[in-house]
Amino acid sequence: MDLMVCSYNSETFEALPLIQEARRNFDSNVSDSVITNLSKIFLEYGVHDKYALMLIHRHFSMTSNEILIESFNDDISVTLPWTFQGT
User: Fold this and answer.
1) What residues does each domain of the chain span?
2) What is the pLDDT of residues 44-54, one digit of tens each?
3) Cα–Cα distance measured from residue 87 to residue 83, given in angstroms and rounded to the nearest whole number
């Protein structure tokens, strides 16, 4: 099992838009032609199987003493808040 430890700042997470807001922003600012053109660029440069576009967002709020823990089981990924008892 691989373990990746990253620095974490709760304020950075809380600054992310909630999924509903992120989707509204996307729908009002990104046209279908932008997605089509980006798709063509990915295909033209042969990077469609290496890179992806992602809508950065959060589904919930967390307190400053919580961190996200991601667990993998085969093709399923689950991310949950976990209370951190750090020093």
Assistant:
1) 10-83
2) 999 999 999 99
3) 13
